[in-house]
Amino acid sequence: MGAPTERGRPQRGRPRGRGGRRLGGVVGMAALAGLAWAVRDVPLALGGRLTGARAERARHSPQFRAGAFRNPASSRPAASPTTGSTDRNLLRELLFGKQQRHPRLPVPLVRPAPAPESSPHSPELNVVWYGHASTLVEIEARRVLIDPVWSQRCSPSTRVGPRRLHPPPVGLDELPAVDAILISHDHYDHLDLATVQGLTAGQNAPFVVPLGIGAHLQRWGVPEHRIVELDWSESHDIAGLRLTATPAQHFSGRGLRRDATLWSSWVIAGAHRSVFYTGDSGYFAGYAAIGAGYGPFDVTLMQIGAYDRAWRDIHMFPEEAVTAHLDLRGGLLIPVHWATFNLAVHDWSEPVDRLWTETKARDVRLAVPRPGQRVVVDDPPPVDGWWQAVA
After folding, report:
1. Does pTM top 0.70 for this prediction?
2. How far apart are CA 178 and CA 203, in angstroms?
3. What are phi and psi of 261, to 5 degrees?
């Protein structure tokens, strides 16, 4: 006789009939709902598209060639973190690399004291670095806010993407009134939807940006009269300051389309003092030309982090930042674009360690503030290696 069977008992691990199909449908719907929830804020964060007079002005820029903005003396797009390497698996390095890409202890923060009293005719010059590239320049009684990002992630989504390694040292609503808000380019770690909306509501200053970025700002509710778009070598005067867009070697894009908006470095010049900010850039010969045309500079804000040999044409190595500073005829060097977001495969503290070594070797004045610490350019704090205690 055959072996007895147990009718009516379903086999383990195999749902049967309508109940199983219903369960699978519920799981699938839940997964789709979760995905929709995770990306619901993405379409707006991607920004706007250039149309009308804005698109026409972009097409007439000397930097616009072959349907997109290009780097100096180049008709090809720059390499990016997703296109720059063919000889190694960068994703594997990001996920499983042995580098120490986060500080082991909390990053020390400073709440900046009120700025010293000054007047429009005072040569006072201070810099407050809030983390990554977000910086406040206090120059001749005026204030310029650079590349402000206060969100927890530099990403089109508030739920996924690189997360801050330290909180902002002050709240966005605690910033003093500023005279201008400068943006270098439209990448998420430099142009942030929530921060722009907060500054639109809480400040009255104009956004001074490279060509095309006004389309993003307009979509996010910034009034047109508060948007000033500049091509390289163009300037905007405000409150006794001259803000000039200068070349950089980088790229742009918030979605699948690249290089529809321009990127730039910036010169901030008052009657007596001047500041240079690199934005994001690889090292290129243009720094010497900027130094000759607009320098010398009392202080340079130099990008030093998120570099890799796979995309060295768009982000400088720390040693190149020192060379660029000297090309620019800079006085004090303050590093930016490090410490706040994990965007490359080097150790968290490596950029500033390498920078400190190089500045000592080349006799360059250096200040490395803690996030939130005010640097008086004429009397900078000594470099004390504070980051090494938390690395």
Report:
1. yes
2. 7
3. -125, 155
Strand, coil or helix: what is 183?
coil
Q: Residues with Cβ < 8 Å from 38, sequence gap 6 or more?
A: 157, 159, 160
Contact (Cβ atoms closer than 8 angstroms) between residue 296 and residue 335: no
For position 63, what pLDDT does the model report? 97
Percentage of residues in the chain with pLDDT exceeding 90?
A: 79
Contact 184, 207 (CB under 8 A): no
Q: In sequence order, what E strands does 211-260 have?
A: 227-230, 235-238, 241-246
Instruction: Determine the angle formed by the axes of helices 350-361 and 318-327, rounding to 10 degrees.
Output: 40
Q: Would you say 205 and 145 are in contact if contact means Cβ atoms under 8 Å apart?
A: yes
Residue written as token pair 């500073």: 325
* DSSP at 19: H
Q: Where are the alpha helices (DSSP H) in the chain?
A: 17-39, 42-45, 52-59, 90-96, 193-202, 214-219, 286-294, 318-327, 350-361
Q: Which residue, 363, 379, 364, 141, is CA-closest to 273?
A: 141
Q: In what order do the strands lie in the sheet with 274-277?
A: 235-238, 241-246, 265-269, 274-277, 297-303, 330-336, 365-366
- Report how far residue 223's alpha carbon sits from residue 214's, in angstroms, rounded to the nearest whole number: 10
- Tokens (6 digits) for 153: 């992630």
Reduced to 3 states (helix: H, G, I; strand: E, B; else coil), residue 130 is strand
Which residue carries 């000054």 as its tokens?
Answer: 118
What percent of the chain stands above pLDDT 70?
A: 83
Record the tokens describing residue 5, joined without a space. Answer: 């069977």
